[in-house]
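Sample A.
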Amino acid sequence: MEFKDVEGNTVILKTDEPVHHHVLIIPIMGQQFLLTKHKERGIEFPGGKREKGESSLEAAHRELFEETGATGILQYVTSYTVMTERSFTKDVFKAEITAISEQRHYHETEGPVIVGSLDDVVESERSRLLQDDCIQYIVREMIVCGSAEHE
């Protein structure tokens, strides 16, 4: 499946193995989404890059904790590739949050943001990531899967 991102780049969604260098986590706490406020980009889902010797799943657990203080049960959902001069692919994980604790410091972010719906995030505070059709599709069709409480 193909999409265009907010900058007009082609984005290809595929389900393969979680072996890519970048990870994105879509955390769910009961009937709410757990987001993070990046210091430069705004409110978005947590994510980042794998470190040397780390699997995508390990990176997803680490990034989730570093950016939100949360831990949970993670499940691989899909991968997507953004086609640019320097194309990249992200592995996407769903996280069922089991615990969250306040941290003295959040890596690259201002910490957790909890919302009932992505529409609750003020448009001017949304990162580009939350505006992309591909991410909206993943959340709506692959994560929530028809569950009205997140719509």
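Sample B, a different protein:
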Amino acid sequence: MSDSLTIYKQIYPTQCPKISEMGYRSIINVRPDNEVENQPSSQMLCSAAEKANLNYCYLPYDAERLSTSTVARFAEQYHKMPKPIMLFCGSGARAKLLYQSALMQGLL
């Protein structure tokens, strides 16, 4: 989406070292835990991210319940976290909606 942020589909703990090697410094996970079977938990991803020297933020939301407070919290994390950031959800669609909502509200 920009030099400071990439939107991606579900990532897995084993991918965190490669994400770090690619130059990313932060991960924002907007996918709720237990959304589908065999999905890695946020805790597992956080642990793997930390081991790979990545900052990690868990900001889950249901695509049908995107609120202005969720958009504001995302914008706050976006400004606070080291760049570049990998923002992800299951397919990337929800992450893209969140990013575009923050842009349209002038928060990024």
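Observation for Sample B: The CA atoms of residues 5 and 85 lie 5 Å apart.
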